[in-house]
Design a protein that fits this description.
By secondary structure, the chain is mostly helical. The chain is built from 19 helices and three strands. Helix content is 73%, strand content 5%. Helix 5 runs antiparallel to helix 6 and helix 14 runs antiparallel to helix 15. The chain is elongated.
């Protein structure tokens, strides 16, 4: 026997011994599991952990099954993440080998874990809403992420997690999850089957129309509904952009908003978001331009005209501001802020007039002439708009302003 033959024989013997060891340890672990001696089972299978990668599919599936069951401890186990990893590995191995021996056995455990994690996550989310508690929101987001990992086909949990991470102000984590979903071609488009439980009145979600129909037929549930959920692509892009805005990465925010607009060019809200980013960057002209673009798409939105009016006023475009405030009022006749803004637009003319009056303070005749021909007419022009603003929305600030105008006009009228 030459050296090469001897080496081949040695390797074969080592492989045989390795396979024998795996089978022996797994058999011992299996007996321990049956006796509910989970610590012993875990200690036993840990001895073959380094060898399991080279084992056949049947042995790998058994290994992950025993590990997951031992970690779960009939529901008493605390390391849910490790259970999730073990069972996911089991499911993957059996899917690839075409078997479902152990997968079918752990379905009940899967459901129990999902129910527990979902219940805890939902409770944390509700507490977050009640107390505006970002810690609880983060707890909920982590739970939803676990559900998405444990049940990879239910990708919506990962989407929910990304949304809630953003609410928890974990913006980078949220973006990481959104981008992973996009990379994996997740759209969120799916058909949802639901019915109302006759037992407790809760909404039950079914995996298929057949499953829903069966329960309705058996009179377990009623009011069956089938709905197609809309694509979440645009909300995900918006979410990423919003996160970048929160992270003060304005360039990245604009990049993703532009990407969203490529897919949905008539979404004026996206254009407004672009404008808001430019405003944060100190680019008022670009902000105004974006608002005007939004108006072209949605010409009946009074708020847009009002916002453009404010920007025009800030940029000393009096005609543009007046035109937009009046259009906002035309579209929404009870728009208090627009009436007030228009009145104050006219009052802005008082600045140089008061300077002129002050410059002629010692010339009483000239002073009175300027006041009568320039100052008071401006007050009279602004007054009805500010009165209307106060009529529509009572405000201490407007009340003080009105009483000052009444006094300057020599009117006895006052608001108490």
């Amino acid at each position: 026997m030459n050296k090469r033959e001897l080496l081949t024989l040695t390797v074969s013997v080592l492989i045989s011994l390795s396979i024998f060891a795996q089978k022996s340890e797994l058999k011992t672990a299996e007996k321990a599991v049956k006796k509910k001696e989970y610590s012993l089972a875990l200690a036993t299978i840990s001895q073959v952990e380094s060898l399991i990668g080279a084992a056949d599919a049947k042995a790998q599936a058994k290994y992950y099954y025993l590990k997951g069951i031992s970690l779960y401890e009939d529901g008493a186990g605390t390391d849910v993440d490790a259970v999730i990893i073990a069972f996911n590995s089991l499911i993957k191995v059996e899917e690839e080998s075409g078997s479902d021996k152990y997968t079918s056995e752990v379905e009940g455990i899967n459901a129990a874990i999902l129910e527990k994690v979902y219940s805890e996550s939902s409770a944390a989310f509700e507490l977050g809403q009640q107390n505006e508690d970002v810690v609880k929101y983060k707890e909920a987001a982590i739970g939803y992420e676990k559900m998405g990992i444990f049940s990879p086909k239910d990708t919506v949990y990962l989407y929910n997690s990304a949304v809630v991470f953003a609410i928890a102000k974990e913006y980078e984590k949220s973006n990481e999850m959104y981008k992973n979903l996009l990379d994996n071609k997740y759209t969120g488009i799916e058909t949802r089957y639901t019915a109302t439980s006759i037992v407790d009145g809760t909404t039950r979600v079914y995996s298929s129309s057949k499953a829903m129909a069966n329960e309705v037929k058996l009179k377990i549930s009623e009011n069956p509904k089938t709905e197609v959920l809309e694509s979440k692509y645009i909300p995900m892009i918006k979410g990423i952009a919003s996160n970048y805005i929160a992270l003060e990465n304005n360039e990245k925010a604009l990049e993703f908003l532009a990407k969203a607009l490529e897919e949905n060019p008539l979404d004026y809200n996206l254009i407004i978001e672009q404008g808001n980013v430019y405003y944060k960057m100190g680019n008022d002209a670009k902000f105004k331009e974006k608002l005007e673009e939004a108006i072209e798409i949605n010409p009946t939105n009074s708020q847009l005209y009002y916002n453009v009016g404010i920007m025009s006023m800030n940029m000393d475009d009096v005609e543009g501001a007046e035109r937009n405030f009046k259009k906002a009022i035309e579209l929404k006749t009870d728009f208090s802020d627009a009436y007030n803004a228009l009145g104050n637009l006219y009052l802005k003319e008082l600045g140089p007039i008061q300077d002129e009056m002050n410059a002629n303070g010692s010339d009483f005749k000239k002073y009175d002439e300027i006041k009568e021909t320039k100052f008071l007419p401006v007050l009279r022009e602004a007054l009805p708009y500010i009165e209307k603003a106060y009529e529509l929305k009572i405000s201490d600030a407007i009340k003080i302003q009105l009483n000052s105008i009444y006094e300057n006009l020599g009117m006895e009228k006052r608001i108490k």
